Batch of 2 targets.
Target 1
Amino acid sequence: MNLEIAPTASPDIEPGPPDENAIEIARVVDRAIRHSGFLDFKSLSIVTGKHAWFLWVDIYVLNHDGNLMDASTIAAVAALMNTALPKVELDPAGNILKIDRSVKSPLKLNTEKLPLTITHVKIGNFLLVDPTREEEDLSDGVYITGIAGGNVVAIQKVTGAFTKDEVSNIINNSVNQYVKLRGIIMNAWQIHRRTLNCEVSPQRFLHYSGLQTIITG
């Protein structure tokens, strides 16, 4: 998992390699996906102990108007749902003879465990979900919850201090927000599968869900 933020995405971004914030986002998104059970990693094996597919997810941010964490998770999940692997032909000894890119199979995914992150910020005594960049700048704390299938699979307290009751409220609200957001994504995915019989970019898939503004600002 790799994330880069274009210098033109925000006045706060400087040219150069990914900063600590970009690295943290990539790690949390990676953790949420890995621990969710969404992707069957064993299905990436071609020949046990010999050949396997290696997946890279590169996220390039063009416009940052807040809540990059949740937007990045949605983008990564959409990309995986749109990924197909070429057919591999093997000889009797398990050596690769041919990779046929004209025949592809989608990744083996368990959409019941689709992972999402839900970001809350604390401003005074209030908790806000899905913050804008201005709200993030004004916040006293940022708390991120990774949810998959209704279960918490990742937690990241970025800044600030939270009481036990606040953490409980954040987790409960994150589960509720997850149900709504997953429903939107799955509805878009069903429309995508019904209307198109060819590969479609994650951007087109997200267009069906109305989530494109979350990705591009």
Target 2
Amino acid sequence: MTIQSDCLTGTLGEFSLADIIQLINMGGKSGKLTLWYGSSGEGSLYFECGFVVHASRGSLEGEAAAQSLVALDGGTFKFTPGETPSKKTVMLAGYELLMRVAQKVDEETFLEHGGQLELELEFEESDDNLLTQSRERIKDLLQARLGRRSEQPLVAVEASEDTMDGLLATCEWIERYIALFIDEVVAEEAGREMREVIGLI
């Protein structure tokens, strides 16, 4: 990744698009992120104070275009600060966009299995103290495992429902998020550790 005349350029491979989106989101940056992929494909994401406000890819616009771009594997990018869109077709924080892509991938996996996936685990309600301790331990292990990439998973943990079931659902989402945007092996290890915290192992 290089900086040329205030523009940030690089190859998606050195850094994932999720990394770039999080960087722009966390920095509250405004500008245009242009993506080139394949032999002639091109798309763009416009940011305003870290929020995605417009996206386009071919005939797609808005959230559909944004999600399709995030799902791309490979290509090059250029972020030009200060560029504004002619219109606004979406309003999402970077982490919200990444969460929705991860959710979509999970739904597609569910359909591939014929809609037969079932959550068989049931939990009794735990007291607030145990829930708080579990949440804090999960945040600590995510920070240790992911370092600077723990930003969005930590946001998800904070936003999880105040039940052990809700925390479990969030941990499952985080495991899918890590596998999709960071590394599958790290996701498997983090998932096992989070289940240990909740008491499933």
